[in-house]
Amino acid sequence: MVNDIILVAQPAAEESLQQDIPENDIEPFVLDGGGEYEIRSIEDLLVLLNRLYAAEEKILWFRGQASYEWDLSPGFFRLNGNVSESTLLMKFKQSASQLIMGTPKESFDWMFLMQHYGLPTRLLDWSESPLVGLYFAVENTHRYGEDGALWIINPMKLNLLSRIQSENEE
């Protein structure tokens, strides 16, 4: 149904199981396995978030997308042209002096600025606020005529999967 939000909890490698959330009662689940849950109201979202945070998921990131059908794909990879990332970065650096104060030192810092100004990068925007993610999931439903999606990931578990560990972590 259009205007429902499909909440995707940390996508699994295999096909996810579609589940509806019962009225005000969510069966326990684990983010590791992934899953899809239909959210019909803010109350449904709050019930789900309470369950997630109670399950010791203390840090979660949220990303809203206007279409349930869209993959998690950065803007640069959705481009249909043959422009390279380094060309986009170089052109942005040439023009950025009018937009910014100071000069970033690292290429990654330049990419953050590019993303901020709406240029396609390999970065995906995530928020620690579920309401910010929800906003982007419903902002253009009239334009796309589809259900939106609210993606949730646990960045700590993602780092463990990718074997990223800083010297300060255990």
Can you give a write-up of this model?
With 170 residues, this protein is α/β, with parallel strands linked by helices. It has helices at 42-54, 85-95, 107-116, 130-138, 141-144, 155-161; strands at 5-9, 18-20, 35-39, 61-65, 148-153. The protein starts with a strand and ends in a 9-residue tail after the last helix.
What does the secondary structure layout of this molecule look like, with pairings?
Layout: E1 5-9, E2 18-20, E3 35-39, H1 42-54, E4 61-65, H2 85-95, H3 107-116, H4 130-138, H5 141-144, E5 148-153, H6 155-161
Parallel strand pairs: 1-5, 2-3
Antiparallel strand pairs: 1-3, 4-5
Mean pLDDT: 76
Q: Tell me about the biggest sheet? A: 5 strands, mixed
Report strand %.
5-15%
Termini separation comes to: 45 Å
Order of helix and strand elements from N to C terminus: EEEHEHHHHEH
Question: Number of DSSP strands?
Answer: 5
Oligomer: single chain
With strands numbered from the N-terminus, the spatial order across the biggest sheet is 2-3-1-5-4
* Individual helix count: 6
User: What best-fitting shape do the alpha-carbon axes yield?
Assistant: globular
Q: What integer value in Å does the Rg equal?
A: 18 Å
Helix content: 25-40%
Q: Look at the helices and sheets and give the structural class.
A: alpha/beta
User: Unreliable segments (pLDDT under 50, ≥5 consecutive)?
Assistant: 1-5, 9-33
